[in-house]
Amino acid sequence: MKKIKLGTETNAQNINPPQSAPLSDEVRGKGLMNSRQEIESGWSDDEYGALCQFEHYPIAEAERARESKNALWVVETINWTLADKKTVYHNRYYVNCLWNAIGLAAHIELDSCQVAEEVIAIRQADDEEAEAYLRVWEVQQTLPKPNLTEIIASGKVPGSKSPGNRPGKGHRPVG
Known about the structure:
Elements lengths: L24 H4 L13 E4 L5 E4 L4 H9 L4 E8 L9 E8 L1 H13 L6 E8 L2 H16 L5 H7 L21
Antiparallel strand pairs: 1-2, 3-4, 3-5
């Protein structure tokens, strides 16, 4: 299994991070291992059916990894709705903070019965993606905001009755 190093300093990790309170020594267990037997690294299963690989990890690296939660994250999906015989849409959604990425991925999966879109990855944005995201975000901030009241009153709510947003001809087969 490939070991992934977390917490390296990149532009992608420094995009508008919310502040996190540092863990106390008691919470992270600093010094508590002296009073109990050392646990070996290895594998374990849990009550949810997942396999967990655990290993000893330096506290400094763990703190850096913890801070990486606040970075820019990418939720990658495949949208089968308008698929033809050769192509589908590969979407990348950019969100700040790991929890927002997890929430978005769950929302997409729950809505997959209406739009045939499925999550294929949740990962941290690389530097190139973070720079592109910032450029697009800055441009979007200069654009006029749509008047949602007028859009709703007109009956032209994006996604509500658009044939492209309903499962149909391009919908992926189930089963």
